[in-house]
Specification:
Blueprint: E1 4-5, E2 8-9, E3 22-28, E4 34-40, H1 45-58, E5 64-69, E6 79-80
Antiparallel strand pairs: 1-2, 3-4, 3-5, 4-6
Length: 98
C-alpha cells in the first residue's frame, strides 16, 4: 500500500538499510555557526533526535539545521554549546556567550 499525506500520494521510496554510523552536525540556520556535532550508531535516529533537542534547549530561540556527514568531526568535537550544556555533563565549545 502506498504512503499518503493529507490524501496526497508520496513518491515511492524504499527504506534505507544503512550500516554506517550517523555522523552529524547541528548548525545555526541563520549564521551557519556550528552548535554541536556527534556520531550515533547505525540506525539510531532516536539518539540523533535527542541530541538535537538538547542543543535546541541550550540555544532556545535559534533556528537550527541538522546535517549528516560522511565522517565524524573527531572525538574532541562531540559537544553541545550553550547555557544548558553543563547540565548534561557535556563539554562546551569555545563561546562568546556571557
Amino acid at each position: 500500500m502506498p504512503d499518503t499525506w493529507n490524501d496526497r500520494l508520496l513518491a515511492d521510496a524504499s527504506p534505507v538499510r544503512d550500516r554506517e554510523p550517523i555522523h552529524y552536525r547541528v548548525h545555526d540556520a541563520d549564521s551557519g555557526r556550528l552548535w554541536g556535532s556527534a556520531t550515533a550508531r547505525s540506525g539510531d535516529y532516536l539518539a540523533v533526535a535527542d541530541r538535537y533537542r538538547q542543543i535546541q534547549k541550550a540555544n532556545s530561540g535559534r533556528l537550527l539545521v541538522l546535517r549528516r556527514y560522511d565522517r565524524s568531526a573527531g572525538d574532541e568535537f562531540s559537544c553541545t554549546e550553550g547555557p544548558e550544556a553543563q547540565k548534561w555533563g557535556s563539554p562546551t565549545l569555545p563561546s562568546d556567550h556571557p
